[in-house]
Amino acid sequence: MNAFDAIIDRKGTASIKHDLAKTIFGNENILPMWVADMDFETPSFVREAVIERAKHPVYGYTFRDESYYEAIIGWMKRRHQWEISKDWILFSPGVVPALNFTVLALTAPGDEIIVQSPVYFPFFTAISDHGRKLVNNRLVVENQTYAIDFDLLEEQAKTAKMLVLCNPHNPVGRSWTKPELERIAEICLHNKVIVLSDEIHNDLVLPPHKHTVFANLSPEIAAITITAHSPSKTFNLAGLAASSLIISDEKLRNIVKTKIQHLHLDMGNIFGFEATKAAFIMGDEWLNDLVKYLKNNVMETEMFLREQLPHMLIYPTEATYLMWLDFGFTGLDDKMIHEKLINEAGLWLSPGKDFGSGGEGKMRLNVACPLSVLRDGLQKIVMTFKNENN
Ligand SMILES: Cc1ncc(COP(=O)(O)O)c(C=O)c1O
Hints:
Elements: H1 21-25, E1 31-32, H2 44-55, H3 66-80, E2 89-92, H4 95-106, E3 112-115, H5 122-128, E4 133-136, E5 140-142, E6 145-147, H6 150-157, E7 162-166, H7 178-191, E8 194-198, H8 219-222, E9 225-229, H9 232-235, E10 243-246, H10 250-263, H11 270-282, H12 284-308, E11 313-314, E12 322-326, H13 334-345, E13 347-348, E14 350-351, E15 362-366, H14 371-385
Parallel strand pairs: 1-13, 3-4, 3-7, 7-8, 8-9
Antiparallel strand pairs: 2-10, 5-6, 9-10, 11-12, 12-15, 14-15
Helix pairs in contact: 2-11, 3-11, 4-5, 4-10, 6-7, 12-14, 13-14
The protein binds pyridoxal-5'-phosphate (PLP).
């Protein structure tokens, strides 16, 4: 049996994914395939590292030692051919906090910041909650796949201060190609737009696609880029709240660093440090197996839904374990699709409209679960919507 086939009971662990259905929908028996964490075990070498540290009887104030930085540097070099230095790495308790304090540090109220919807919704609030102006470079669909509206981006970049890039993109599943990223880079360089590149899903690019680190395109690009990264999606350890910002430009880095220090966000927790080290030192083989498993789950989903619901449009999943499904064929509005899924299918997906303009009629399906659970979820979708499929 494949280790990823094991069904882990996560109920009763205060899991956002598994323990909130009762509170929200009044029914605990709803299959959760929404929030972006995986139903697989966090790898044993990560758990062992955390347990080993927990055995020491004192959990006092702790700094991140050399080995922590070396683990991140080694990972970026091995997995992403990106050479970084220790002093480029800043700690953040999460990528979402990092998006927020980077916006606070590098822009001023009223500044225009570009996002590309439909996109991970905390991108919107990281801008609007701080009085910055949200500018939407909405993605366009071409030949049933998502693309960037570069003409619009060129216009918007003339007055914008920052672009928050989702690379790879959640929820549309694109692994942006090098030429696409180069075009973004050219526009941003020309217009002096800072790029905040959220690369939290960078390790979960499905073959044959390849991840390109935006900051690694050229030294000039690196000088205007802030990269956000974390072991949390890759190794399923979001509950340990440990991530990084990687910034090569000293001036930009010092501004962001000062903001982190003023907000007192750089302490972190000892278990997050140990987990990060173990994951990035020992995680290669485990990750290779995970990516294979995810790729297979994506293919199974595509095959099954294409056969059973031929009118459903399934966008290609090039990266992440999140699939973007178009329920437009049902003729139902967003609220009805969601209600039908919850009440009739007993299945919880993320409503597409939460990801902003362009998300209407879509649902995001999280396939990071054992294949048998995935098949159950897919069956629920088909049973509920097969009569609409005409
Ligand atoms: C693009 C993106 N950024 C950030 C996060 C969450 O980051 P964190 O949990 O480190 O705040 C997610 C989680 O789904 C995500 O998809």
